[in-house]
Amino acid sequence: MPRKSTRLPNIVFFGVDSLRSDHMSAYDYHRLTTPHIDRLADEGVLFEKMFSPNIPTPPGYIPMLTGRDLFSTQVVSLHHKDPLDPAIPTLPEILRDFGYSSACIGFGPGLYRGFDEYAEYRAWMNWEERPGDKAGKLNEVTMPILNRMAASNKPFFLFMRHMDPHSPYLPPHPYDRMFYTGNECDPNNKSMEPVFAFAPFADFFRSWMPPGVTDIEYVNASYDGALAYMDGCIQQLLNRLDELGIVEETIVVFTADHGETLDEHDCYFDHHGLYEPTLTVPLIIRYPGRLPEGVRVPGHTQLKDIVPTLMELIGIRPKVKFDGMSQIPLLMGDRATNATEFYITECTWMRKHGIRTTEWKFFEALEPDFHNKPPVELYNLVEDPLELNNLADKEPGMVKELRRRMNAWIKKRTKQTGKGNPILDYHIGTDRRIGSVATANKLQKK
């Protein structure tokens, strides 16, 4: 697959926060939430089984930007405070050695080091501050940077952290009611009662949900509306690539740091738990003339595989060891999957770890959690894809076997890296609260 020119390709990277793939029409969702991203998938390659195995934000974005796992990076929590190991180069640092300029929209330096330029935008708001025109605000700061980078004689790497699917879900009109035409304050509807009964997040929910809301389907539809709004704003950026005449020399990557739980498993409107809505994320890559169009790849891949994939697509070989593997062999039919099983963790509001295979998922609590979930959970993903039937008590032999395999993987990786398992270094407790949007924003910035 030779390149069309000697210049290295640009990379435009959409790294969305809190986007579960099963709510995208590109992934066969029943609502048309992402028509423009669907077209992007038609023009490139869609990976059907893409996973973010480590929750929350930092352990999602760091493998996306390094190709390394949590044992290498030691990043496993929202509250990671230490600098990233300087021996681990980030993607912009790797690309700089090959002549790239870079910019990051939505993060500051710190943990996400290595970019030449950083820019922030308005991504948090409460009910009174709506609309949540997050992607529009991102475009306002991104477009001048894109124009300037495209005018340069250097290849560029533009990374964008979209926040629209991250609560608060407050898309502007008409997206706020695009998928909902009912009465969200119907006094006869009691579906929001358990949401507001969850004390740790109740005040946070009230700070951005409509006063008096009673129908949980309104909030679910608001998530979908936020996706549709973001989709339209992303198309503006894709159109600009076309106007600049650089589509043919630009790799576009679309993925997410993790998914989002809506009304499943009593873990409301945030990325709690190790259930499938939180672990499953999209991945679409378009590179005209180098990648085929409209191909769907069924094999299992993870966020740590993206950087090695980009290295192969670009055709460069940095002197860097990656934990992930290129996904190109899956596309070419040379390998069926990049992983038949993998280690999973959450260290946000619950501290748990486990293992997911093609058939089973096992995870256990490292401390009690404020959702009062069982200490051990086991699901047959083939027979019970919604994870409604915990088989931990009925299948003790499978629990024992999966725990053995999980511990063997931990032992292998700690030996290989010479570092411990970072999830063991935290204590979360059951007394934490989020009282406002401002508090949530501060937690994201730690």
Descriptive notes:
- By secondary structure, the chain is of the alpha/beta class.
- The protein has one domain (10-339): Alkaline Phosphatase, subunit A, CATH 3.40.720.
- Helix content is 30%, strand content 17%.
- The protein contains 13 helices and 14 strands.
- It has helices at residues 35-42, 58-66, 70-73, 91-96, 134-151, 193-196, 199-208, 216-243, 276-279, 306-314, 328-332, 396-417, 437-445; strands spanning 10-16, 45-51, 54-55, 101-105, 117-119, 156-160, 250-256, 280-281, 283-286, 295-302, 341-347, 351-357, 360-365, 376-380.
- The strands form 2 sheets. Strands 1, 2, 4, 5, 6, 7, 8, 9 and 10 form a 9-stranded mixed β-sheet that branches. Strands 3-11-12-13-14 form a 5-stranded mixed β-sheet.
- A hairpin with a 2-residue loop joins strand 12 (351-357) and strand 13.
- The longest helix is centred in the middle third of the chain and has 28 residues, at 216-243.
Describe the protein's topology.
Elements: E1 10-16, H1 35-42, E2 45-51, E3 54-55, H2 58-66, H3 70-73, H4 91-96, E4 101-105, E5 117-119, H5 134-151, E6 156-160, H6 193-196, H7 199-208, H8 216-243, E7 250-256, H9 276-279, E8 280-281, E9 283-286, E10 295-302, H10 306-314, H11 328-332, E11 341-347, E12 351-357, E13 360-365, E14 376-380, H12 396-417, H13 437-445
Parallel strand pairs: 1-6, 1-7, 2-10, 3-11, 4-5, 4-6
Antiparallel strand pairs: 2-8, 2-9, 7-9, 11-12, 12-13, 13-14
Helix pairs in contact: 5-8
What is this structure, in a nutshell?
This protein is α/β, with parallel strands linked by helices. The protein contains 13 helices and 14 strands. The mean pLDDT is 94.
